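Feature request, filed as a ticket because there's no other form

It would be nice if the structure record came with a short human-readable summary line next to the tokens. Right now we just get the raw output. Example of a typical job, pasted below so the devs can see what we mean:
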Amino acid sequence: MVLIRSLEDYILARDLRLIKTAKEDFAYLFRLYISNGPEFREMAKKENNLKKKYEFLKKIIGDEYGELRQEEIDNVLDKFAKKRDRRDRMRT
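Raw output as currently delivered:
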């Protein structure tokens, strides 16, 4: 796994094929979506592939974010996990 702190890091890692799996790709983009929202939105306007991924994340998360501190990121992750758990319980 590579250290990715910004969307530029993500794009470089992607282009160098350092991101190996779809799950890894999703994990990086999920974190960037909630921690670097404005930067992600701007890059998504310029690159169609990122736009599709951004729209997917927006659909499943339901909110758009700015730049969050770690504590705020943890709160978002908790909220998302609770939403996912409710959805899973409804399916069973």
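Something like this underneath would help us a lot:
Helices lie at 7-15, 22-35, 37-46, 48-61, 70-91.
The chain has a mean pLDDT of 84.
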